[in-house]
Amino acid sequence: MALMQQLCRFHQSALCSTTELEASVIPEQGVRRVSMPGRAFSGIALPPQDQVRAIKSQQISASKERERMIQGIQTTLTARESDRRAALRRVMTGFGEDDIEMTLADSDGTASDAEAGMRVQLGPSTSFFAAGRELATRLTLNKRQSIAFLLICRQLDLMRQTDRGDVGQLCQFVGGEGGTGKSRIIEALVELFGGKGLSHRLLITATSGTAAAQINGITIHSACGFTKDQGAGGANMAKDLDGVRLPKLAGRFIHGQSRMDWQEKDVLVIDEVSMLGARTLHAVNEQLRRLRGSKEDFGGIPIVLFCGDFHQFRPVQERSILLPSAAISWDEDNSFRAEQRHQHDKAHALWKRFTTVVMLDEQMRAAGDPELQRLLKRIRRGVQDRTDLDLLNSRCYREGRRIPWETGITVVTPLNRNRWNLNMEASLAFRVQRRSTMRIFISEHRWKEELPTEEEAIMMLNQGDDSAIPVPAVFMFAAGMPVVVNHNTHQGLKLVNGASYTAVEVIIDKAYPGHRISAEITIHFGPPAGIILASATTRDLHFVGMPPGTILLTPMSVRIYRQRKRPWQRNEVSRKGLPCAAAFACTDYKVQGRTLERVALELRGTRTTKVDGMIVAAQCDPYSLYVQLSRCRTLDGIMLVSKVRERDLVGNRVPVDMTAAQARLEVLSERTVEEASRWLEGVDR
């Protein structure tokens, strides 16, 4: 708060005196270059501001092409193969926007995430089951992983051997705690279809951008033609009550080629299904029916695979598909009318069709720490007690211990206010550690009706990014710092909400020159023209004008509406800035699905109350409790920011009805595994 007030006062005083403001400007002289010793792109010139639009256009084209590849949208091969492949490479590396046709061979040779390794080409005459067994051995799948994979292979063979109409639809769920290798089954499916030259018949999706990026897929929202991103729909989209944006009636026409592409799909995968809300599932089902021209569930796609862990986070704005509407209190607000309850129950009925269930139980992430494994299992069962509380506090908490930012530790907190403050502290510490300069960018704010009071302006500068506002008010930049993206920008290039990067450098917007605060710190009264990012996912990217192995993120605008939680805000305001934030500290939602070597956890609730004049955090959400503690491989890698209170752990379990619903999955899993084991034994005889 103190730093924000200083920045705001500097801003106000500078505006009062044009002479003082101009005197503090630092001119950008000559060509700026990347300065990151040890990195391949260090020393390379930064693109000038007038190239930003062209670079952005290249990235949009490459992202769309990659998304088409993921969705298997391709046409028959034509003549002049070498010319067409050259055109593809130009698009994927940023050297053109040619019209091209996509094939499996192209995706193998040009995908940015391709890795060296052996690839088995499986002829079309090889049965899916035979190919699957070979893959299961090569990928070292364990027993339950193999069963989940081979059940799908068996179904694919049945479809090929008989009329598809005579083979029932397979609805399969693969569950299990975090770190049990659910994504390995998806990896095996991708290899299977790729080896047979049938990648266009498999569609890999997830409920979030980061989850989709981790499995080289796209979001189910994007695949179906609607989105949950704020403002992404524009004038041609109609917002449903649950936050999903559906095309208006005029935009729901299905093109013939699109229908043909969808009718080719044999397998649909949806990962992180715990965050798939019931009404979103209903919308997905209705859209798939339209896209495939079928009234059957999921448009008649022969195999639908759901993956996830229902002990991790639930849908943000909706209700879980695990429960019928009768089990949910619908009196919390007026948005859930009879129509919404009807949609919820139709989605729940779809979920009940998933009776082929395999729950993975071999822990891989925490395999080397039996104590952590035991603690996580007790939390999942809801039987954690004071001995577990004492274990955590004695092993992971030390009074007065500072957060060792220099070790690369990641702080996880459910409280945005704490995250903003911690990231500010860590950014300043990072600059000192690196002995580098820092640029502070204040996002552009435009008030709708009248200028704000000084108090409102200061409070707005203290309002950072959150789930509804992807742009922070202030972005502190130092070369080499970790950042996390807050908006699904280019799904095909994995520049998505929750993706982590190293910040390489910023492209200065000439409209917002830097003003010297000190020898090491410069302030800009507006966002940069762009920020250059690097990560493992950008390693093989090369866009014209950009340092190789990097990607560009540009500013976006977001409207901040008046809300009860911001009583000080009197007017709507538009904020323009970078949709990213420092990633020294992240929310619990942002780290779901990730494995972290060192973490500092804050096991607290998302709300605070005043007790005897002191701010006290609410009880830790039981889902957050499990997600946070399951991010690390060992207890020794976990540090507690504050001592765990008894109410945050002891007796803190998920709702009884959710526990019962998950128990049903365990029963179905035992039945599925037993039947599959007998079938496999028969095959081996």
TrEMBL record:
<keyword id="KW-0547">Nucleotide-binding</keyword>
<dbReference type="GO" id="GO:0000723">
    <property type="term" value="P:telomere maintenance"/>
</dbReference>
<keyword id="KW-0067">ATP-binding</keyword>
<keyword id="KW-0347">Helicase</keyword>
<dbReference type="GO" id="GO:0005524">
    <property type="term" value="F:ATP binding"/>
</dbReference>
<dbReference type="InterPro" id="IPR051055">
    <property type="entry name" value="PIF1_helicase"/>
</dbReference>
<dbReference type="InterPro" id="IPR010285">
    <property type="entry name" value="DNA_helicase_pif1-like_DEAD"/>
</dbReference>
<dbReference type="GO" id="GO:0006281">
    <property type="term" value="P:DNA repair"/>
</dbReference>
<feature type="domain" description="DNA helicase Pif1-like DEAD-box helicase">
    <location>
        <begin position="172"/>
        <end position="320"/>
    </location>
</feature>
<keyword id="KW-0233">DNA recombination</keyword>
<keyword id="KW-0378">Hydrolase</keyword>
<protein>
    <recommendedName>
        <fullName>ATP-dependent DNA helicase</fullName>
        <ecNumber>5.6.2.3</ecNumber>
    </recommendedName>
</protein>
<keyword id="KW-0234">DNA repair</keyword>
<dbReference type="InterPro" id="IPR027417">
    <property type="entry name" value="P-loop_NTPase"/>
</dbReference>
<dbReference type="GO" id="GO:0006310">
    <property type="term" value="P:DNA recombination"/>
</dbReference>
<dbReference type="Pfam" id="PF05970">
    <property type="entry name" value="PIF1"/>
</dbReference>
<dbReference type="GO" id="GO:0043139">
    <property type="term" value="F:5'-3' DNA helicase activity"/>
</dbReference>
<keyword id="KW-0227">DNA damage</keyword>
<comment type="similarity">
    <text>Belongs to the helicase family.</text>
</comment>
<dbReference type="GO" id="GO:0016887">
    <property type="term" value="F:ATP hydrolysis activity"/>
</dbReference>
